[in-house]
Specification:
The complex is a heterodimer of chains A (450) and B (461). Chain A is an alpha+beta fold and 450 residues long. Chain A is 22% helix and 40% strand. In chain A, strand 1 (19-36) and strand 2 form a beta hairpin. In chain B, helix 1 runs parallel beside helix 2 and helix 3 packs parallel to helix 5. Classes of the chains: A alpha+beta (450), B alpha+beta (461).
């Protein structure tokens, strides 16, 4: 048993008869370095710890958090949570999880990050900036190059018997390149992630940021046309982020999901599945248990195009009843908040093909590199969306002239049904979750322009 | 909050690698949040967050480290971690600390901590029930209460030491009303740097009623026409526009990077002579007020436009340095100990003028009267803006006529304030949260009734 689990367990000491108590404890160390023009702009080094305490009495829930983890601080949090519970509204969903066996995932913590000196981290950020500038003569500046890392630990203990702890390391570097020609400026994003410094590919992130910016120079607004549309992996990941909230049982129960009442329906192309897997090692969100100590697992949400399941935490499962169980998707913003439903590592699954095959099949189509207005532009209930897109024409299996100020409008379900080919370039992006992108060929869609 | 010997040891460790100056910001934040939705108490949470950050600054560069363990060992470790981000030889030292105790301008009569939870829950219920009581067309009510007591301890190597507490309270109601498939929302959210005594003056019933009545009124509205017209913004309603279209462009970090339309225009007649706008952190008990900013500068009132002449900007220490100023304007603010300060607005105020509010409308032949603005987008480099209008009326021959919805206000910041041709004697404040660089801070907006001779209205009708 580790130090953090000891701490969480010690927070339960004052639990009284008739109440169920849970303590969620976190400890994190993190560093980030932002450089600009060959110099450090800001360097931030952080260490945080804290505990969130849930108390359930007579199906009433109370919560309190504290970053004071001394014995008096923990006692105070428990007393506050208990007194908050007295004012809660009784609800069938207010229940703590029962213990279940869970299997540790030691591979998500790569040792050694603690001993990487700050100067090395600064050097990595500077190297990323230099390499981006050197990658293409049209890249005239780098908006900012950033290196970041963290070791995060979490532990859950409860009077119902839950007892779990894990630690994970994360390392990343990203850059926003600025390519210029005359008055025109285009930006491009490059990213590399890993669990240790050695796993970072700085050169690849630099090349990616530079190429994405430079290839958009000279972009023009197209005439309105109907063509095959290809999504870049980052765009696919962003759409998956919108979909993620619709798979939440919480959203379904509150009538905020277009998938409410549609289990068993064909919602995507028969060749496409959508999977959430908290145990997938290359997913940034990999963890053996969720944020209330329930073991994580692989959950097939859409199987061969058919909607099969929603994501649950203990609360939404209890509210659905009829033997519904948590899928291990309780998610918290930190120790200061109660759990809600959230995806772990979410990805598209199906027969994957080389990206070259997709570009060859999309002749005359539009390769979408960036979308804007996605989050405000999608109606979560109807699934209708209209987004601005930037990208490139596909000609003879290659990316050709750039396009700007175009729009694509459709609905989420129409889009899922139009998926024709899935690229084998699957890659996770830590953009508002842990979402996998892959190059995606959609059938013909209308691209709005002049 | 921290021992002076620990502070000196920490600041000394922070300056070993060539920092010009160093600072400790320690914070204890006690908060309560209550949310009632769909008739249920969905959330009742309490939190205590403690932490401290050490910043080392050299010229325009900064390095920052934070921890939520306030022992000397942890603070010195944070100081060393920050110092590692600065490369140079030690040249500055820690001055003798002098405790500064500015007089408080924001007295608290009933500390939230002295009010029991049952009373806070009952208050939130009263707002919720008042909203439901407005009629069967009210379909959903969310009522939320929040209070926070934020103790801020600041010390820097220039010798400053202060220890102040900021208390804020807020009650919010959000109401959804529907009729024949038309769904509209209403919002009311008063807040102040005050304790529970705030709700002796602002009753919870008034908060619920106002939000519900707004949603219900919008059910009677028609889609807005489009075109150029005279626009009257009611008292308080124009504050968001001033904040977004003028205020952000006058934050000194944007001026230093030359990414704002206002850069280099100090002394120019930008606005109309009727237009005087200030940023005022000293506003008694204002939602965006404080006594000492988040880098140890006393709260100030900064004139941004003096009868239309561009007169000032809002800075923190680093942006003041970049602009060659000797001191900041007291606008260094941060979300918490986990963030570095940025130049931010506090309470953005347009000062009252000489026209009776009724007279401002009376001589408008054809125009639009806006009661509130919603979210907007501003391009800081050009000053171009688009704002949604939450509630508005058409003005016809000096009278308010048809209630409209779905209007957008399209214009340009400097041009809009140059076209202000009437300013009311009235004044009202509104409160909100302003986001910048991922950090959220409380801000207030205050304006009299303002008339802008012409603006473009984007409508759907």
């Amino acid at each position: 048993m580790g130090e953090l689990l000891d701490l969480a367990t010690s927070a339960l000491v004052g639990a009284q008869g008739g109440e169920a108590v849970e303590a969620y404890a976190v400890h994190g160390v993190a560093t980030s370095v932002a450089v600009y023009g060959g110099e450090v702009e800001t360097l931030t080094s952080a260490e945080t710890r804290g505990v969130g305490v849930r108390v359930v009495v007579d199906r009433r829930l109370g919560f309190a958090s504290s970053s004071d983890v001394t014995p008096p601080g923990l006692e105070r949090a428990l007393a506050q949570a208990r007194s908050n519970a007295a004012f809660g509204t009784p609800d069938v969903g207010n229940v703590l999880p029962e213990p279940a066996p869970w299997e540790p995932m030691p591979a998500i913590l790569v040792p050694g990050l603690e001993s990487v000196p700050a100067a090395r981290k600064v050097e990595l950020a500077l190297e990323l900036e230099r390499a981006t500038l050197a990658a293409d003569p049209r890249v005239r500046a780098v908006q900012r190059a950033t290196y970041g890392d963290g070791i995060s630990r979490a532990a859950v203990a409860s009077t119902t018997g839950v007892s779990a702890e894990y630690a994970r390391s994360d390392v990343y570097a990203y850059v926003s390149a600025l390519a210029r020609a005359g008055e025109e400026t285009q930006t491009g994003f490059g990213l590399t992630t890993g669990r240790s410094v050695a796993e970072l590919d700085i050169a690849a992130a630099a090349a990616e940021g530079a190429a994405r910016a430079a290839r958009l120079l000279g972009a023009r607004k197209p005439a309105t046309t109907t063509v095959p549309v290809v999504f870049d992996p980052l765009v696919t990941a962003q759409f998956l982020g919108v979909l993620a909230s619709m798979f939440s049982a919480e959203a379904v129960q509150k009538g905020r999901s277009l998938f409410a009442g549609r289990l068993g329906d064909q919602v995507a192309d028969a060749g496409l599945s959508i999977v959430d897997d908290g145990r997938l090692l290359d997913g940034p969100a990999a963890a053996p248990v969720d944020d209330e100590g329930v073991p994580t697992r692989r959950t097939v949400l859409v199987e061969d195009g058919v909607l099969r399941r929603f994501l649950h935490d203990t609360e939404t499962a209890a509210r659905d009843g009829d033997g519904t169980t948590s899928t291990g998707n309780a998610s918290r913003a930190g120790h200061t908040s109660t759990p809600g439903v959230g995806p772990s590592n979410l990805f598209l699954d199906g027969t994957a093909v080389p990206v070259a095959d997709i570009l060859a099949a999309a002749d005359g189509g539009l390769y979408v590199q960036d979308v804007s207005g996605l989050h405000s532009g999608v109606n979560p209930v109807s699934g209708e969306f209209s987004v601005g897109v930037t990208g490139l024409w596909v000609r003879g299996g290659e990316l050709a002239e750039p396009v700007r100020e175009a729009t694509v409008s459709s609905t989420i379900v129409e889009m899922l049904r139009a998926v024709a080919m899935l690229g084998e370039d699957r890659r996770f992006f830590p953009v508002g979750g842990s979402l996998a992108g892959a190059t995606l060929l959609l059938g013909f869609m209308t691209v709005g322009g002049t | 909050m921290l021992d002076e010997a620990d502070v000196t040891a920490t600041l000394t460790a922070a300056l070993t690698t060539g920092g010009d100056w160093a600072e400790i910001y320690a914070e204890q934040r006690d908060s309560t949040a209550i949310r009632i939705e769909d008739h249920r108490v969905e959330e009742l949470t309490s939190g205590r967050d403690i932490g401290a950050g050490v910043r080392v600054v050299r010229g325009p560069q900064s390095a920052y480290a934070y921890t939520n363990v306030l022992s000397r060992d942890s603070l010195v470790a944070a100081a060393k971690a920050a110092a590692a981000g600065i490369a140079g030889a030690q040249h500055a030292s820690v001055a003798d600390l002098t405790r500064e105790s500015p007089p408080t301008r924001h007295p608290i009569r009933l500390a939230p901590d002295d009010v029991d939870k049952a009373t806070k829950v009952a208050l939130t219920r009263r707002a919720e029930e008042a909203a439901w009581a407005q009629g069967a067309e009210v379909r959903q009510v969310l009522a939320a209460y929040a209070d926070v007591a934020q103790r801020v301890f600041l010390a820097n190597s220039n010798g400053h030491l202060s220890d102040t507490t900021r208390v804020r309270s807020r009650l919010v109601a959000q109401v959804v009303a529907a009729r024949d498939g038309l769904v509209q929302t209403g919002f009311e959210g008063p807040g102040a740097s005050r304790g529970f005594e705030l709700f002796g003056e602002v009753t919870p019933e008034s908060v619920g009623e106002k939000a519900a009545q707004q949603a219900l009124r919008l059910l009677d509205s028609v889609p807005s026409p489009a075109g150029e017209m005279t626009v009257v913004l009611n008292a308080g309603g124009g504050g968001v526009l001033f904040h977004e279209a003028c205020g952000h462009g006058l934050e000194a970090d944007a001026i230093a990077k030359d990414t704002t339309v206002y850069a280099g225009r100090r002394g120019e007649q930008v606005g109309s002579e009727l237009f005087t706008g200030v940023d005022d952190a000293t506003l008694p008990n204002g939602w965006g007020s404080f006594d000492v900013d988040d880098e140890g500068a006393s709260a100030q009132r900064t004139v941004l436009f003096d009868h239309g002449v561009l007169a000032g900007e809002m800075s923190d220490r680093i942006s003041a340095y970049k602009l060659g100023l000797t001191a900041s304007s007291g606008n260094g603010r941060r979300q918490s100990y986990a963030s570095v300060p940025q130049p931010r607005m506090t309470n953005s105020l347009v000062l009252p003028g000489e026209s009776g509010p009724a007279a401002v409308i009376a001589d408008v032949a054809h125009g639009l009267y806006a009661e509130g603005l919603g979210g907007g987008e501003v391009n800081p480099a050009t000053g171009d803006f688009v704002f949604g209008i939450t509630e508005a009326y058409l003005i016809s021959n000096g009278e308010l006529t048809q209630r409209i919805r779905g209007a957008n206000l399209i214009g340009n910041g400097p041009r809009a304030i140059s076209l202000v041709d009437a300013v009311g004697t009235d004044f009202a404040l509104k409160q909100g949260m302003c986001g910048k660089g991922g950090q959220w801070v409380p801000v207030a907006f205050g304006t009299p009734t303002l008339r802008i001779a012409r603006l473009t209205i984007g409508g759907t009708g």
